[in-house]
Design a protein that fits this description.
103 residues, mainly alpha, elongated
């Protein structure tokens, strides 16, 4: 039978005695070791931060507004048309640019 050894890393932190005692008490109350408690708590918070930064939540009203814009985009205004024109000029004038990349 083969065992799989997953790579593990170590995290260390220095905290005041009061913080340590609080963490130990919370770990004890949850039935975990201090290390298990710290990892579980930190992972839970890390996942919440990642979700908060990567997920966009819209109200029903805002979702309807966005869907309508996607299905019925407004006509380009003068500034957008000028930007598209500048882009096309740059794209066509630089033969060695990534715009003209061919696989």
């Amino acid at each position: 039978m083969e065992t799989i050894n997953a790579k593990q890393d170590r995290i260390g932190a220095r905290v005041s005695h009061d913080v340590y005692e609080t963490l130990c008490r919370a770990a004890e109350l949850s039935g975990a070791t201090i290390n298990q408690f710290l990892v579980q708590s930190a992972l839970k918070e890390a996942q919440a931060v990642i979700e908060r930064e990567q997920v966009i939540r819209l109200s029903v009203r805002d979702w309807g507004w966005m869907l309508n814009l996607l299905e019925n985009p407004p006509k380009p205004n003068a500034k957008l048309q000028a930007a598209m024109s500048r882009y096309q000029n740059i794209k066509s004038s630089d033969a060695d640019s990534i715009f003209n990349w061919q696989p």
